[in-house]
Structure formats: structure tokens, C-alpha cells
Design a protein that fits this description.
By secondary structure, the protein is mainly alpha-helical. The protein has a domain of 185 residues: Serine Threonine Protein Phosphatase 5, Tetratricopeptide repeat (Alpha Horseshoe). It is built from 18 helices and no strands. The longest helix has 21 residues.
């Protein structure tokens, strides 16, 4: 009963996000019947509100479209492919410019062995989905269950093709580039690792950081470290350009987490040079000056910690806490600084203060202290 209530709440929440659910099977077969029952009930409520039919252009039209396609998806997962196809056809007839309908119909055609029609729908899906970078990102990021490996492979391949088509139209969209690399890592791992290494080697720092953040989520630490060892890191010798010091510190944090201490130190040392310049360039009459200085001081604290200058890092952290800037982050930082300096009693007091901060707002502090820097 509790699980049913959770799913009901989830569907209610999703009603505010009209086109969020995927048009390819995104749920497990075990969930399909339960979700179907809930969706049919919600559809009935929606239709009753409009006395049988939701008019075109009404505020509920997008919700109707989402629910009708979700019914088709559930039918598909329950093995009722022909009924799912008929339901999807009705969706496409009313909303011919919605790419999700073609993706669902592609899955139906594929299951029925109608491969030529499935390929045609895949192309239509790509044409519509790649026309808007935000829509492309939404479609590319949709979850893909692995309970049907063949369909999962087809869906991910379609997502990768969509990402590449969208990038041809929107080559400056870095987020699309990162998602395309992530999908390539799943489908073409060797080529993706080689490409990721080139991207890190060539930069700029902002792109390097995005690539490494994604790879850190997708790869085992040793595999990522091994990839990084193949790269010429001569670019770390020069300090970053002004405005890019935060990204260079972020790179240092990733290298440090992978045990690549030499490169972490180089990244932090270069960032400290640029941060000193950036601090002098902040104009006192800039209305955002105080926030820019907070960011610079925070990056300096992280960089100092990376090169084991913990006392200096602690002084900066204490000043940020006095200014009440992002207190949770700097409470965590203070605990780590005190531990690294061997001041265990003070670290224990700082940890108690951190836990009390959570308790004051009725929350429980995390069992494991988050990493810093």
C-alpha cells in the first residue's frame, strides 16, 4: 500500500511536467500493471473534468497527451503490443509534431518485426527531437531499463544518434557534447575513452572539468586514473586564464581524489596565482563584488588544502564562516582542516556543531562526513 501511495504521488508530481516521461519503455515490466491502473484512473479524472473530452489548446492537453502515451507504454510492457500500437497511433494522429509518439511507435514496430517502419519512425523522432537543444537533452537523458537488453541497446543507440544529430545543429551546446560522450561510453567504450582523453588534453579547463566530472560518475576510479596517465599534462604548468581558476581548482580536486597528487598540486598552484590576480581585479563598486570575493576566497581555501597548506586554508574557512557564507560547506571544510592539522578535540567540537546545525532544522546530519576539498 505504501509503494502504491509513493507511485501515486510520483504521478501527481509528474503531471506538472507534461512531456517528461519517455516515449520508449522507461519502466520495468514489474511496474507496468501498477502504473497502468494508476494512469487509467488519472485519465478518467481528467476526462470527467472536461465532460468526456479535453479540448485542443486547453491547459490539460499536454497532460492528456502524456497520460495516453503512458497507457500505451504500459500495454507494450505487458506484452499487448498491438493494442499499444493502436493507442500510439491515436497519439500521433492528434500530436504529429511530438517526437515521443514516434519513439514509442518505433518500439512497437520493432517488436512486431516491422523493421522498415521502425526505422522510418526513428528518423522522424530524430528530426523532431534534434530541432530544439533543450528537447534533445530531455530525450537523451531519459532512463533506459535493462530488463530487455535488446530494446535497451536500440534505445541507447537512438539516443546517441539523436545527440550527434543535435550537435550538428547546435555545436556550441557543451551539455549536449557531454551527454553524447556519456552515451558513447556505454556503446563504444574504447572510442569514448580515447576521445575523452583528447578532450582533457586539449581543454579548455571548463570542458576538461565537465568531461572529468562525467567520467568520474561513469567509470571506476582506477580506469579513469589510467586514462589520465596517457595524457600529456604540460598544460598544467601555466596558470589558468583569469576567470577560469575555479575550474582549475575543480580539476585539482578530481586528480587528488584519484591519487594523482602531482597533477593535483600543479593545478592548485597555478590556480592560486590566478586567484590572486582575480582578487585584485574585483572592483569595489561592483554590486556583485562581495559574492565574487566569496567565490575567490572559497577557491583559494580549496587550492591551499590541495597543496597541504592546511593552516592557511583553515584561516580562510574561518573567515567565510564568520561572514555566514554557505555555512554547511565551510563547517565541513573546518572539520577536515582541523583533522589534517591533528587537532582532534577541536575537530570533534566542529563536528558536533555541524550535527547541531542539522538538528536545528529538524534534519539528520549525514552519517559519513562529505569529502572536502
Amino acid at each position: 500500500m505504501q509503494q502504491m501511495w509513493v507511485k501515486l504521488c510520483l504521478i501527481g508530481l509528474l503531471s506538472w511536467l507534461p512531456a517528461l516521461l519517455s516515449a520508449h519503455p522507461h519502466m520495468s515490466r514489474a511496474e507496468a500493471q501498477e502504473i497502468l491502473d494508476l494512469t487509467l484512473a488519472q485519465l478518467q479524472t481528467l476526462q470527467q473534468r472536461h465532460h468526456g473530452g479535453v479540448p485542443e489548446g486547453s491547459a490539460d492537453e499536454a497532460e492528456l497527451r502524456r497520460l495516453q502515451l503512458l497507457v500505451a507504454e504500459c500495454r507494450f510492457l505487458l506484452g499487448e503490443v498491438k493494442e499499444a500500437l493502436a493507442l500510439t497511433e491515436a497519439v500521433i494522429e492528434r500530436w504529429p509534431e511530438w517526437p515521443d509518439g514516434y519513439s514509442m511507435r518505433r518500439a512497437c514496430f520493432q517488436a512486431l518485426g516491422r523493421h522498415q517502419e521502425a526505422d522510418a519512425d526513428a528518423q522522424r523522432y530524430l528530426q523532431l527531437g534534434a530541432g530544439d537543444p533543450l528537447l534533445a537533452m530531455e530525450l537523451i537523458r531519459r532512463p533506459v531499463p535493462d530488463d530487455d537488453p535488446a530494446e535497451a541497446l536500440r534505445t541507447r543507440t537512438l539516443q546517441l544518434t539523436l545527440a550527434r544529430e543535435a550537435l550538428r545543429r547546435w555545436p556550441e551546446e557543451t551539455a549536449l557534447l557531454i551527454e553524447e560522450l556519456r552515451l558513447q561510453l556505454i556503446l563504444e567504450p574504447a572510442a569514448a575513452l580515447e576521445r575523452g582523453a583528447r578532450m582533457v588534453g586539449r581543454g579548455p579547463d571548463a570542458l576538461r572539468l565537465l568531461v572529468l566530472e562525467m567520467l568520474s560518475r561513469e567509470l571506476e576510479a582506477e580506469a579513469l586514473a589510467e586514462m589520465l596517465r596517457t595524457i600529456d599534462h604540460g598544460w598544467l604548468v601555466a596558470p589558468p586564464e583569469a576567470g577560469n581558476s575555479g575550474e582549475r581548482v575543480g580539476l585539482g580536486v578530481i586528480y587528488d581524489s584519484l591519487g594523482l597528487r602531482q597533477w593535483a598540486h600543479q593545478a592548485a598552484a597555478g590556480a592560486l596565482v590566478t586567484l590572486a590576480i582575480e582578487e585584485r581585479l574585483v572592483e569595489s563598486n561592483d554590486p556583485l563584488a562581495v559574492f565574487r570575493l566569496y567565490g575567490i576566497r572559497g577557491d583559494r581555501a580549496r587550492a591551499l588544502a590541495l597543496i597541504d597548506r592546511w593552516e592557511e586554508a583553515l584561516n580562510l574557512v574561518e573567515s567565510l564562516l564568520e561572514d555566514q557564507h554557505d555555512p554547511l560547506t565551510w563547517m565541513i571544510a573546518r572539520i577536515w582542516c582541523l583533522r589534517e592539522l591533528g587537532r582532534e578535540a577541536q575537530a570533534a567540537e566542529a563536528l558536533a556543531e555541524f550535527q547541531a546545525y542539522y538538528a536545528d532544522v529538524g534534519m539528520q546530519a549525514p552519517e559519513a562526513l562529505p569529502a572536502w576539498p
